[in-house]
Design a protein that fits this description.
This protein is 90% helix and 0% strand. The protein is an all-alpha fold. The chain has one domain. The radius of gyration is 17 Å and the shape is rod-shaped.
């Protein structure tokens, strides 16, 4: 039970990384969509 805060911190870090990845993927998708519209 004592290491619960540590686990939560680790989980938060993972969630942050996941959100960052999702944002990057979304931006890349938008860029690709924009490029295909130009072509």
């Amino acid at each position: 039970m004592k290491d619960l805060p540590k686990k939560i911190k680790k989980l938060n870090k993972l969630c942050d990384q996941l959100i960052e990845l999702l944002v990057k993927a979304y931006i890349i998708l938008l860029v690709i969509e924009a490029l295909t519209k130009i072509v």
